[in-house]
Write a structure and sequence with these properties.
By secondary structure, this protein is an alpha+beta fold. It contains one helix and seven strands. The strands form two sheets. Strands 1-2-6-4 form a four-stranded antiparallel beta sheet, with no helix packed on it.
Length: 153
């Protein structure tokens, strides 16, 4: 004599197997998932300096006009440097992209802030000096980029 399951029991068993298989397929496809949020905090080191015409650091220095210079003279321009990063910085200065290229042979740029350590948020008055050689010739106009460097202290 063969054992027979009532059709209701057989239907429930088949349905249970289908649900189990369906859940396994959905899980393997990544359709069922769970997550956990973990908070984090920290700080990113930044080395950043700003140049301004005023001590309140609201009027950015974007261009310097040296005016009309004579051979053998020097011109000074003063502005404020602010440490806008989150680390103390040591200030440095370079001049690049001279036009005409030979102007750098007749002119030199210096300043009074070379090597100054500027704490975070502090402001210092810097004076740039452009010296023009007395032997300059053939240059009637010039341009160059002033690059203020803040290096991690």
């Amino acid at each position: 004599m063969a054992f027979q399951l009532p059709s209701k029991v057989l239907g429930v068993a088949v349905l249970g197997v289908l649900v189990l298989v369906g859940a396994t397929v959905l899980t393997s496809l990544g359709l069922l998932s769970s997550s956990r949020t973990v908070q984090s905090h920290g700080a990113v080191k930044t080395v950043n300096v700003g140049a301004y015409w005023n001590s309140g650091c609201t009027n950015a220095t974007t261009m310097i006009d040296w005016g009309l210079l004579s051979p053998g003279t020097a011109a000074n321009v003063s502005f404020y440097i602010r440490n806008e990063g989150n680390l103390p910085v040591r200030l440095g200065l370079t001049a690049q992209n001279w036009s005409p290229a030979n102007a750098s042979g007749y002119m030199s740029l210096s300043w009074n802030s070379e090597g100054t350590v500027l704490p975070v948020g502090n402001v210092t008055l810097a004076t740039l000096t452009l010296n023009v050689s007395s032997s300059i010739s053939g240059i009637t106009s010039f341009s160059f980029d002033v690059v203020i460097v803040g290096s991690e202290q």
